[in-house]
Design goal:
The chain is 51% helix and 18% strand. It has 388 residues and is α/β, with parallel strands linked by helices. Bound molecules: adenosine-5'-diphosphate and magnesium ion.
């Protein structure tokens, strides 16, 4: 047996006949294996609870829990362990029964040691193969979920943009009419009207609601390319400066420190500055919101192959694990009615997908949150970003 197995294979031999067990263990040791030994089913299960094993060589005929029952219990509790049964040469039916119960294979006693070593080796290969299969399965499931999430968000995005467009026109009319009504109610002729104040209050409520509805439609339309916006060279550092300018007041109020770790050469992409600014604005305002006084935001860029990676890290409240999968969904917010719409990250996701980029997030509650943007150094303009 080669070194590869010697170090990694965890083997347990279970047999009530001490002499036989020891001899086999000794012979296996000579071939580089160091089996742990157990004298019966109960001891075997006890050992497995404490120490993980890859392969168990199990005698079928034992006092106490029988070999077949031990096998079933092993398979029930430790699915991944492969079991090789040792049966008496007149009890082949035990072996067949064992295979049905999940044994890897069976050998009849007396065993030929090289044959046993080979079987152990094959069983170990099987555990590794299954492990790889499991990993691949998990990877595929994760990838599929990500694809479904992206597709779902994209189709909601298209629909919501349409709705936002449709709602903008009636909103403008309501707003204009509310303004006109306010003007009429405030005129001197209405000074004697007893319900004047109640009417004004009503109009103010309408105006406040229009403001909220507008905030939502504007956010939803934020990723739609403006006719005047053209693809050009975008200097991320300059754009970040500009965006911070828009958040100046909050940054000053909270005395937030900004750490610039931006590589002069590795912060330039060919893309849509208008859309990227929407992204930065959303990410930075979220970071500022998450911070308490004297918190900090660290900005860094680097280059990986054809992409520029921009990291925006804040030392704010963090995002609980159970929310990490929801933050890109439309209308998911943990903020109050006045503070949040839950559309910022939804729009960010939409823009980044349009620009052929990627966005990832990692966070530790109470410590930090890091949004990682990956943008291609060159993005071709596509149909997605044609003006609407
Ligand atoms: N930097 C951050 N730190 C902590 N939580 C964040 C951060 N960014 C986003 N979140 C969480 O994600 C939610 C959704 O964000 P967003 O889509 O921008 O909507 P909104 O800011 O209107 O709530 C926020 O309500 C907040 O719970
Ligand atoms: Mg936000």
């Amino acid at each position: 047996m080669n070194k590869h197995y010697d170090n990694k294979l965890r083997l347990l031999i279970v047999d009530d006949e001490e002499g036989f067990r020891r001899t086999i263990a000794k012979r296996l040791a000579k071939r580089g294996l160091k089996p742990v030994q157990a004298s019966g089913g109960e001891e075997c299960l006890g050992i497995l609870k404490q120490n993980p094993m890859d392969v168990v060589v199990l005698d079928v005929k034992m006092p106490g829990i029988s070999g077949i029952d031990t096998l079933r219990l092993i398979k029930q509790e430790f699915e991944k362990i492969q079991v090789i049964l040792l049966t008496g040469n007149v009890a082949v039916s035990d072996g067949i029964e064992g295979i049905k119960s999940g044994a890897f294979d069976y050998l009849t006693k007396p065993v030929e040691i090289d044959h046993l070593v080979n079987k152990i080796k094959q069983a170990f290969e099987m555990t590794r193969l299954e492990e790889e299969k499991q990993k691949e399965f998990e990877y595929r499931a994760k990838l599929e979920k990500k694809m479904i999430d992206t597709e779902r968000l994209a189709s909601i995005g298209t629909m919501s943009t349409g709705i936002a467009h449709e709602i903008n026109n009636p909103l403008a009319i309501i707003n204009e009419s509310a303004g006109f009504m306010k003007q009429v109610v405030s005129s001197p002729e209405m000074s004697m009207f007893s319900q004047k104040d109640a009417l004004l209050m009503g109009i103010e409520k309408i105006e406040k609601s229009i403001k909220r509805a507008r905030k939502i439609t504007h956010q939803l339309l934020g990723h739609v390319k403006k006719p005047e916006s053209k693809f050009s060279e975008v200097n991320l550092k300059a754009l970040l400066y500009e965006t911070f300018g828009l958040l100046k007041r909050e940054i000053k109020n909270k005395q937030i420190n900004i750490n610039w770790e931006i590589d002069k050469k590795k912060n330039i992409v060919w893309s849509d500055p208008y859309q990227i600014q929407q992204v930065l604005m959303n990410l930075l305002s979220n970071a500022v919101h998450a911070l308490s006084e004297n918190g900090s935001i660290t900005l860094s860029t680097r280059e990986i192959y054809e992409d520029i990676i921009l990291e925006i890290k804040d030392t704010g409240i963090g995002i609980p694990k159970e929310n990490l999968g929801k933050i890109f969904d439309p209308f998911f917010t943990t903020k109050s009615f006045d503070e949040g719409t839950g559309l910022g990250l939804f729009v960010v996701h939409k823009i980044i997908s349009n620009l052929n980029g990627k966005i990832d997030v990692s966070s530790t509650v109470g410590e930090c949150t890091c949004f990682q943007l990956s943008l291609p150094k060159y993005t071709n303009q596509t149909d997605n970003d044609t003006p609407r």
